[in-house]
Amino acid sequence: MKSAVTVYCGASLGEHPGYADAARQLGQALARADMDLVYGGASTGLMGCVADAALLGGSRVTGVIPQSLVRFEVAHTALTELRVVDTMHERKALMAQLGDAFVAMPGGFGTAEELFEVLTWAQLGLHAKPCALLNTNGYYTPLLRFLEHAAGEGFVHRRYLDNVIVEEDPHVLLSRLSGHRALPHLFEEVAEA
Ligand code: AMP
Question: What does pTM read for this prediction?
Fold first, then answer.
């Protein structure tokens, strides 16, 4: 079966055209790697760019969107499949379930929330899927610096931070997803100690 990557990214385009370019490159790279896309289902911002490029390249693209956002007419109307759910919580659960790996591109609160949720769930052993950051224009470098600080202060386990894949090039990022090894989750570590 083909693998699918769940992409979290901005509903906005960002200030620099490089973000939209990177979203299109990621969509193209997914199609070239024969991978499918799962994402937030909108036609706007980086979300629309990654979806359009993946569709154009021949990937199956599944959007997962809550009914409340469909009403605002932000849903992409030309996807392979649009899954309309009742709540944002259901949406995140389904997006996490449908993807074999997670990639966060530049984005805002929504993207950060989705990213941190899948990182937390990996630590708790709720999934064993790779998590990656597409660090376009060094967008995530300040966040990575903060997370290093959090690890230094003893609030983030360094092994889990080190296990996050960080790349600027979408092709390199996708090739690293397949070689990824999941870590034992926190409670397995406690049991082994
Ligand atoms: P943000 O990063 O705040 O722009 O939010 C984008 C992320 O949150 C995406 O990965 C979506 O899953 C979700 N999201 C937030 N706003 C929207 C929207 N207007 N339409 C669709 N999805 C959205």
Answer: 0.94
